[in-house]
Amino acid sequence: MKFDILTLFPEMFDIIKNSIIGKAIEKKLIEINTINIRDFSKDKHKKVDDTPYGGGAGMVMMPDVVYDAYMSIKDKKNAKVIYLSPKGNVLNQNKVEALSKEEHIILLCGHYEGIDQRVLDEIVDEEISIGDYVLTGGELPAMVLIDTVSRYVSGVLNKESVDEESFSNGLLEYPHYTRPEVFLNKKVPEVLLSGHHENIKKWRDEKSLEITKKKRPDLLK
Length: 221
Description:
The protein is of the alpha/beta class. The protein has 7 helices and 9 strands; from the N terminus they run E-H-E-E-E-H-E-H-E-H-E-H-H-E-E-H.
């Protein structure tokens, strides 16, 4: 899968190229490219924003620089363009799995008060939010989307890890334990030491349901 990111702060994405995502990049399972929108400014000071028509607080990113940055991306004919915005649909597990089937995703990161609506109407396929709150820009939401979608790209993780985690079956995941067997006078549940796979599965299913009822009862609806 290929991610192209339109951003004013490409250096922010260096952090995501580590750990599991970094290994996926090395294996060429995913590709992450950044395009600096500021490079397409026609202003000698590289200005990319201006005051909003109609007045109001803040500045608005100009449509021409965003459009020119977008047009610089090669082979974008079949790409899905996503604008990270608090006005978008909230990212959830179903959307993540659907996006993981795409071959090319272009992520547009806004800043200031937002981006001129005309360029959004022209190039954006979908707006996505990562929650009901406002951030200073779209870079952090873009990183969240890349991380969670990449995990579902074939070969990035083993299938069992993905199938058994929270939300994959509509519930939260069961608790995990490892060595030492006793820690702070608390012992690992006996069933996990039994070697009886059927009983272990039953215990995990029960714990998953119990935790979901306690922490996210809305998921049971």
